[in-house]
Amino acid sequence: MKRDFTQWSGTALLVIISLIWGSSYLFMKKGLIAFTPVEMASIRLAFTSFCFLPIFLVHKNSIKPHHWKYLLIIAITGSGAPAFLYAIGQTGITSSVAGILGALNPIFTILVGVTLYGLKINTEKYLGIGIGFLGAFILIISGPNGLDFSSQNLGMSFLVVLAVFCYAFSSNTIQKYLPTMNPLAISSGAFFLLLFPNLAEAVHVGVLQESFWTTARKEVIIFILLLAFLGTFLANILYFHLVQKNGAVMAATVSYLIPIVSILLGVLDGEKLSEWQILGMVTILVGVYLSRK
């Protein structure tokens, strides 16, 4: 009974996180209308760090000296580097393509976990990851949001792939070295390490100057704040909890659901849904189900 509850609660978290992160690509796209990638990333991380600061003050005593080296890895690979890489990458590719490239996350999680972290997974998970990747591949090559390398900037795509690769280190570090640590302590500790560098960068780009806040920036700042609060603050807490309860590989399958969210948001915006995209989404769901085993 406890195992079943853990699996289904994990599935619920998986869906919630995918909805949040699937929307985050759209928030980034809107933010880049008026902000540079560095401006958006530094404001996003500084605001998130401030949100975590009260939580850090409550949980700081539970963070032991030997935890900090792992929190530094999580801070850099789980939030710091990806925020800048995604922001820069989306200047050359669409938000839908960025979401689809995120489907590489489970593959990277297995590769990094098995080779560097001693991760051991069962046959069902391997099968689930493979089927999920097949579904993601169908989405990559089909429909109006498919990945078309003839028209997309390969360099920007590589930056997004690098960001996805970073996540593999973060989730595997949590599973191996901090499996019982409070997710609030993990999240707030990691963002405490990011607070001062990103606050300094935000000041450097001019956020305290009145001339910085043009009308265009005032109009889209809400998207960056939503990106920070939902896509970084809330999603990080939920994701770290998911990694601890259900494992890094199962948690990484959230990246298979994100393209589905991106495509469905496009449908709500008037885009057409092809039969191949429906097949891809169904295949992904089968893969996610098997990954829960």
Structure description:
This protein has one domain. It has twelve helices and no strands. The radius of gyration is 19 Å and the shape is globular. It has 293 residues and is mainly alpha-helical. Mean pLDDT is 84; it is low at 1-5. The protein is 78% helix and 0% strand. Helix 1 (2-31) packs antiparallel against helix 9 (215-246). It starts with a helix and ends with a helix.
List the helices and strands and how they pair.
Elements: H1 2-31, H2 37-59, H3 68-89, H4 95-101, H5 105-116, H6 123-141, H7 154-177, H8 183-205, H9 215-246, H10 248-252, H11 254-268, H12 275-291
Features:
mainly alpha, 78% helix
Summary, kept brief:
With 293 residues, this protein is an all-alpha fold. The protein has helices spanning 2-31, 37-59, 68-89, 95-101, 105-116, 123-141, 154-177, 183-205, 215-246, 248-252, 254-268, 275-291.
What's the average pLDDT? 84
Largest sheet report = none
Radius of gyration in whole Å, from Cα? 19 Å
Distance between the termini: 14 Å
Low-confidence stretches: 1-5
Structural class: mainly alpha
SSE topology string: HHHHHHHHHHHH
Taken from the alpha-carbon principal axes, the silhouette is globular
Query: Into which percent range does the helicity of residues fall?
Result: over 70%
Domain module count: 1
Query: Treating each run of at least 4 consecutive H or I residues as one helix, how many helices?
Result: 12
Strand content: under 5%
The count of strands amounts to: 0
